[in-house]
Design brief:
Elements (H helix, E strand, L loop, with lengths): L15 H15 L4 E6 L6 H14 L3 E6 L10 H10 L2 H11 L5 H15 L5 E6 L6 H14 L4 E6 L4 H8 L10 E4 L5 H12 L7 H7 L4 H14 L7 H22 L3 H13 L5 H8 L3 H14 L15 H7 L3 H13 L11 H5 L4 H7 L17 H7 L6 H18 L1 H14 L6 H13 L3 H15 L5 H17 L19 H14 L3 H12 L7 H13 L3 H17 L3 H17 L3 H14 L10 H14 L3 H12 L9 H14 L3 H17 L10 H11 L3 H18 L2 H17 L22 H10 L15 H11 L4 H8 L3 H15 L4 H14 L1
Parallel strand pairs: 1-4, 1-5, 2-3, 3-4
Helix pairs in contact: 1-2, 4-5, 8-10, 9-11, 10-11, 12-13, 12-14, 12-15, 18-30, 19-20, 20-21, 20-22, 21-22, 22-23, 22-24, 23-24, 24-25, 25-26, 25-27, 26-27, 27-28, 27-29, 28-29, 29-30, 29-31, 30-31, 31-32, 31-33, 33-34, 33-35, 34-35, 35-36, 36-37, 38-39, 38-42, 39-41, 40-41
Length: about 900
């Protein structure tokens, strides 16, 4: 008896438990016991490699082995799989003898069937392994004969071992090959590899250690052994040590390998499974399961089976709603359909929401999927009846039909963009695919303006993750044929995408973006970058205004970024006005997602101003432009956060809670926009008197913002809310420290008075909803109160702030925080005591004193005290 081989190939790393089970089955077969086993697992999990191992194991034991490897090509040949089994069980001469002994038959396929019966008789009493790889690709004739063969062979000693990505019962049911009697089946599932195992597979393939960045590609590959081999082969082909620039190439190789294997798997899936996959590629996750089933033409049972099959294959994510494992696979699915098939599916998707001939401009109303917060505004909103129509006023069906006409490449690109604009509401994933098609397949000197438009629209959808790698790829390929001046807007969009979603680009190195911009689009993005960091307010205002003075030169998303920078810099009227202009221009261009983003930014500004009702009105307009179900999962958290905060500002806390629950039912991508939703939920937690949970949410919010270097508290005043949480948890010193830190950032940025007002409105909103905020009751700012410890300190404070009522002879150059420290120095406190008094770090006190010395022109502590006392006497 042969033991399990000690050597396990690299492609079988992490499969030892399955191999041990199969070894047990072979041992049982040697003892005359029959079994039926199915090896299943997602795309690229190594099913074929496991089956090959079992075949080698059985042959090493001297057993009779029949093997059939099914493929898409042979699935059209009657008895193709059975013929393979027969060819491996018998010598060719023996097969000829069997055929000649059967005699003439009425049909050629009957010869194969009768040869199988004869073979079964000849093999009676001998242990036999019948191994069939990719059973789902076998032809229906072979499937029916295999079921009968295995069932009858169980009278002897037979181990039937098959591999299939989908449940075998679905494969057999689709072929009408259900067994006459139930048979016990052992299912062996191949799970995803661990990080260590994935790294081991790659290292075994390349023959040397690799760095941890390779695991980025492992994530795209779904921790799949077969796809990791493609990554390893790409590493070998590079022929040089890995660096940052190499990682995108590895990820591209992983994605291509996964997609290729997924499409091969797709060929043999049952019809109901393919129908659901195609419907999901068109409808995306914005369709609820019932509508998705209707789009696929499936009843409840068929829908459930198809959903299970796609999850088993690894083509669907393990979520509560049907969703593709990788959103970009939708393009591959749609590309595999014929033009008429795609048109029929798109028309069916449109008919689910209204009449097929409905105008594109009214699709949002046909969907009728608006949140409760906007319904109260819809009836009375005059803008609802004055929505601009498309100039051509074409349906999506006619637009798709026009793509089949012989036109120039530039005209085709423009039609694809118009179709993408129409599908942004009904089929956003398909729309994204059209835009990527323009960027990746229609890149030329003639179509360059359309490529820029497509990049802008793709980013406006909120999928910064996809937009950044497509833009990076396009930029790299355009370097040789597009002038540098015309490349600058694309670089700006690339930097904006990279800022919204961090990490490495997936296909090509990111476009280089200079901090000395030479184009309005670059000025806009640089202004937004500096604004989020809280750096150089004067330059931000200059850059943003320069960019917005030439709106026709900058893409919509760059203009929105510049307007948001103005809002952060406390130029609120100009910021709101420019966002309104962007929304109007975007509507006229049918860029509904860009219009929605501009209106969302206006709503966020109204929330900071404390205008809850106005914020709800802006959100109504945003969701009318683009229904909530059509917002990308990477952008939807911002929409949900704005809705929650606007409702809190209006005192509608219960509705805000419902909005938060609705947001949980939608998939959330991981991007900086999640920080907005974390903050909104933290305010709800404070109102619910759950300070501990609020603090956890706020700390995660702060961590995400710091990781992106978003330091400006004008964006999200998370420290203010965290201070309230710390106060409720019995840590007033920590609360005061957070307030001071936040105040210092706002002071350095130059919007201290504006931010103080924002913080006061935030605290007042919480107090109105029952949250105890001690320093909000009197409308004071806790961070600005130094709590002096003696009469002398109070007099010092009075002398330092005398300029406020005009009693001082000259303006005070010190900031409020520097005056606080100086007052306590005059009161005789040491640096450590001052730090304790103000809730600061000692180092912070030292730095403020250094600035104070420089501004007042004094050298040292004694000189400062003398200077301050002289001012007291003069006052």
């Amino acid at each position: 008896m042969t033991a399990t081989p000690a050597f396990v190939p690299a492609q079988l790393v992490g499969r030892q438990a399955v191999l041990d089970t199969l070894d047990g089955f072979v041992r049982r077969l040697e003892g005359g016991v029959s079994d039926i086993a199915v090896v299943t697992g997602p795309v690229g999990s190594g099913r074929s490699a496991v089956l090959e191992w079992a075949v080698d194991r059985a042959r090493a034991s001297g057993l009779v082995v029949g093997v059939a490897r099914c493929s898409p090509r042979e699935s059209q040949l009657p008895y193709g799989a059975i013929t393979q089994l027969l060819g491996t069980l018998c010598r060719p001469s023996r097969i000829g003898a069997l055929a000649s002994g059967i005699g003439p038959t009425s049909r050629p396929t009957d010869t194969v069937a009768r040869m199988c019966d004869t073979l079964l008789t000849l093999s009676a009493g001998r242990p036999v392994l019948l191994a069939v790889d990719d059973l789902h690709l076998a032809d229906a004739h072979s499937l029916r004969r295999l079921v009968d063969l295995i069932h009858r062979a169980r009278q002897g000693a037979v181990l039937a071992l098959v591999t299939s990505p989908v449940p075998v019962r679905q494969v057999l049911a689709a072929a009408g090959a259900q067994p006459a009697a139930p048979c016990p089946v052992h299912t062996l599932r191949l799970d995803a590899l661990t990080a260590a195992e994935a790294r081991g597979v790659v290292e075994a393939r390349v023959g040397h250690p690799v760095q941890g960045s390779v695991l980025t590609a492992a994530g795209v590959a779904g921790w799949s052994p077969a796809v990791l081999h493609a990554v390893a082969d790409r590493i070998t082909a590079l022929g040089r040590p890995l660096d940052t620039d190499a990682v995108p190439q590895l990820i591209a190789a992983a994605r291509t390998a996964w997609s290729t294997r997924a499409l091969t798997t797709l060929h043999g899936l049952p019809e109901n499974v393919v129908a659901l996959l195609r419907a999901t590629a068109v409808g995306g996750h914005q369709l609820e399961p019932a509508r998705l089933a209707a789009l696929a033409g499936l009843d409840a049972t068929a829908f459930a089976d198809a959903w299970d099959g796609l999850r088993a294959c690894g083509l669907f994510a393990d979520t509560d709603i049907p969703r593709l494992r990788h959103p970009w696979f939708a393009d591959d699915v749609l590309a595999g359909m014929t033009g008429p098939e795609r048109d029929r599916l798109h028309r069916r998707a449109t008919s689910l929401h209204g009449q097929e001939g409905a105008r594109v401009g009214t699709v949002a109303e046909l969907l009728g999927d608006v949140t409760s917060l906007v319904r109260s505004w819809t009836a009375s909103d005059p803008a609802a009846s004055s929505r601009p129509r498309h100039a051509a006023d074409l349906t999506t069906a006619s637009l798709r039909h026009s793509l089949g006409e012989p036109v120039t490449e530039a005209e085709r690109a423009r039609r694809l963009i118009r179709l993408a604009a129409a599908e942004a509401v009904t089929a956003p994933q398909a729309a994204d695919g059209r835009l990527r098609q323009v960027m990746l397949r229609h890149l030329s000197r003639e179509t360059w303006p359309d490529v820029l438009t497509a990049a802008d629209l793709l980013l406006s959808r909120g999928d910064a993750e996809t937009a950044r790698w497509v833009i990076a790829d396009v930029h790299q390929r355009a370097l040789t044929e597009i002038p540098d001046e015309e490349l600058r807007p694309l670089r700006a969009l690339g930097r904006l995408a990279h800022k919204e979603k961090g990490g490495l680009p997936l296909v090509a190195p990111p476009p280089i973006h200079s901090d000395r911009p030479g184009h309005p689009a670059q000025s806009a993005v640089l202004a937004w970058t500096l604004a989020t960091r809280g750096d150089d307010r004067a330059r931000v205002l200059e850059l943003a205004r320069t960019a917005l003075d030439e709106p026709e030169s900058a893409p919509f998303m760059c203009r929105i970024a510049a307007a948001r920078a103005l809002l952060c810099a406390d130029d609120v009227p100009a910021g709101l006005d420019r966002l309104d202009a962007v929304a109007s221009d975007a509507r006229r261009s049918d860029a509904l997602a860009a219009a929605a983003q501009a209106l969302l930014s206006r709503a966020e500004a109204q929330i900071r101003l404390g205008h809850g009702e106005e914020a709800l009105h802006e959100l109504t307009a945003a969701t009318r432009a683009l229904p909530p179900a059509s917002w990308h999962s990477l952008l939807a958290p911002r929409l949900a956060a704005a809705e929650i905060l606007a409702l809190i500002r209006c005192g509608r806390v219960e509705e805000a809670g419902h909005a938060s629950e609705r947001a949980r039912s939608r998939p959330e991508g991981h991007s900086v926009t999640t920080a907005f939703l974390l903050y909104a939920r933290a305010e709800l937690a404070l109102i619910d008197r759950d300070a501990a949970r609020a603090l956890l949410l706020l700390e995660e919010c702060g961590r995400m913002l710091r990781a992106k270097r978003w330091r400006n508290p004008m964006l999200i005043p998370w420290r203010s809310a965290a201070a309230v949480a710390h106060h409720h948890l019995g840590a007033p010193a920590t609360a005061d420290d957070l307030l001071v830190q936040e105040r210092d950032v706002a002071e350095r940025w130059g919007t201290l008075s504006a931010f103080t007002a924002v913080r006061a409105r935030t605290h007042e909103a919480l107090a109105r909803n029952g949250v105890e905020v001690p320093w909000a009751a009197a409308g004071t700012d806790r961070s600005a109160q130094p709590a002096p410890s003696s009469p002398s300190s109070r007099s010092a404070q009075d002398s330092l702030t005398a300029t406020a009522d005009g009693t001082a002879s000259e303006p005070d150059p010190l900031t409020p925080s520097e005056r606080d420290v100086a007052a306590l120095v005059l009161a005789g406190l040491a640096n450590r005591e001052i730090a304790r008094q103000l809730g600061l770090a000692t180092r912070t006190v030292e730095l403020r004193l250094t600035h104070t010395y420089r501004k007042l022109g004094v050298k040292g502590r004694a000189a400062l005290v003398a200077h301050l006392r002289a001012r007291q006497e003069d006052g």
